[in-house]
Amino acid sequence: MTIKLKKETIEILEVIKKKRSNIEANNLAKEMDLDYIVLMSAVNELIDNKLGGFEEEEIHQISLNDEGIEYLEKGLPERRLLNILLKDNLKEITKEELLKRSNLTQSIFYIGISNLKKNKWVTQSKATGDDKLFVIIDDFPQSKLELFLEKFKENSVMDHSSLSIDDLKLVDSLNKRKLIKKTRRTQRIIFLTNKGEKISLSEIEELKQVSKITPEMLSSGSWRSYDLKPFDVTKPGPLLKAGKIHPLVNLINEIREIFLSMGFTEIRGPIIESAFYNFDALFQPQDHPAREMQDTFYLNNPKTAKLPDKDRVLAVQETHENGGDSGSLGWGYKWDVNNAKKTVLRTHTTATTMRRLAQFYKENDKVPVKVFCIDRVFRNEKVDKTHLAEFTQLEGIVIDDNVTLCDLIGLLSEFYRKMGFKKIVTRPGFFPYTEPSMEVSVYYDKLSQWLEMGGSGIFRPEVTYPWGIKEPTRVLAWGQGLERIAMAYYGREDIRDFYINPLKWLRQQSYLK
Ligand code: PHE
What is the C-alpha separation between 459 and 358, in angstroms, rounded? Predict the structure, then answer.
């Protein structure tokens, strides 16, 4: 089969054949007055036809930096100092005087002095009382360093590999004097394969290739003499930078799907919440530290919130004061309705699930009720790698007869399993509104570590009785920070990334989710 190559490729092949070895791509491009890209695309054509190839080699080069170039032009400081002495035929001079005459900066002057002595061009003595330099010889041949420096006049860039051991020592002293720049680049050496070396140009035909057939080619019939350039279907398409759904929203949607598939319904609640639903209804005493301003954002406007029907407020009040009908002794203090009316930015979505208990009472609902809530919460917290002051919580409750902690563990295991976490452990925990309480951790394969996910438990009678939810009806409840799951899910180490939005990372996210 005859080989067909493009015209430039045939020309390049011809040149390479004549040269035989050590053909560096950049040099060849320069020599043939070709664009480097054109040359390399011809080389690729040789590769496709198994006629040639290239090897990459890393080369280290050195050249003078600005200070080095200045020394090359004006001489090293030691030479310049010597010249001052020779010009006026001085055999001795104090350092002070020489510094004055030299016009050099102190630091360069002392480098010069130390090399003057190293070259044995002067000696130093304090014998006369002054710190003096003496010239005691008359011949000052160029030092090895000076001779080497001169070489940069012809070759401003030198290959490290072409230098002798002695030269390398000199490079080292230039480097110590901070006079050189080191650069690294990759060069490509072009070669021919056996086939490429053997093939004679008469065996090669010129390839006339086009990527498009024009109407003119069709009407004249000239299209027949062209080869059509094949499509390279392996080439990636152009990079698209179109908008896409934010990773956090994608995750929320995924979690929604999971809960919906498990038979849950979504609920939402207000961001501006009453202390009543945020704390009191959850049996958190009015002097509980979590209620303090340093943990919770209180609002001035609106200053007070509307509470539910009077009898329910009273039921909550009685639970706090003496346990009401929950069988508890309560906290034993005087509950103040004004504290309950305060407005806060919801500190947890448990306030929203609490509202669902109130609705359960009001509408005389039937069990089971299974709801979840994914929504924004606020805490007066210092923001850092693992904390946000404004974040998202994922929360759920099941109201049903005779449900137990086992049901809760089963439910959470199922949820995290669907999220892709295979191992979960639960440990006893504490929350003022659940008994028993449980903390959940999941095993995160990518980091080989356990991550604490959130809290859960069975609402205490003090929480459920005011809403008519009484034994054997119970409420399983859990809640956790969504961004914490997102960190594990997306492998981010800084929780703030979800809001700072590093563009590079966002661009790596897939369009389809
Ligand atoms: N509200 C708790 C929190 O914000 C989580 C929780 C919800 C714990 C429900 C127990 C039951 O961390």
Answer: 14
479 lines ligand 1 (CB under 6 A): yes
Distances from the Cα of 437 to the Cα of 162, 459, 470, 486, angstroms: 74, 9, 19, 24
How many angstroms does the Cα of residue 431 sit away from the middle of ligand 1?
7
Q: What is the Cα Rg of the chain in Å?
A: 41
**Is residue 112 in contact with ligand 1, taking CB distance under 6 Å?**
no
Residue 372, ligand 1, Cβ within 6 A? no
Give the pLDDT confidence score for residue 12 in this predicted structure. Answer: 92
Written as six digits, the tokens of 46 are 């040789």
Q: Rounded to an integer, what distance in angstroms lies between the CA atom of residue 263 and that of residue 256? A: 11
308 Cβ contact list (under 8 Å, min separation 6)? 276, 358, 362
327-381 residue pLDDT tens: 999 999 999 999 999 999 999 999 999 999 999 999 999 999 999 999 999 999 9
Q: From ligand 1's centre to the CA of 430, what distance in Å?
A: 10
| pTM for the predicted model, two decimal places | 0.60
Instruction: Indicate the top mutation candidate among 284, 346, 350 to test ligand 1's pocket, ranked by most ligand atoms within 8 A of CB.
Output: 350
Distances in Å between the Cα of 260 and the Cα atoms of 255, 340, 411, 480 are 9, 34, 13, 18
Q: Is 16 exposed, middle or buried (0-12, 13-18, 19+ CB in 10 A)?
A: buried
Contact criterion met (CB below 8 Å) for 319 and 281:
no
If you measure from the C-alpha of residue 480 to the centroid of ligand 1, how many angstroms do you get, rounded to a whole number?
A: 7
Tens digit of pLDDT for each residue in 213-233?
999 999 999 998 888 888 888
Residue among 431, 433, 463 to mutate when testing ligand 1 (max atoms within 8 A of CB):
431
Tokens 């130390």 — which residue? 114
Q: Place 313 in a pLDDT band, splitting at 50, 70 and 90.
A: very high
Q: Using CA of residue 244, residue 245, residue 247, residue 253, what is the dihedral sign?
A: negative
Q: Quick check: 434 and 457 in contact, CB under 8 A?
A: yes
Res 225: pLDDT: 85
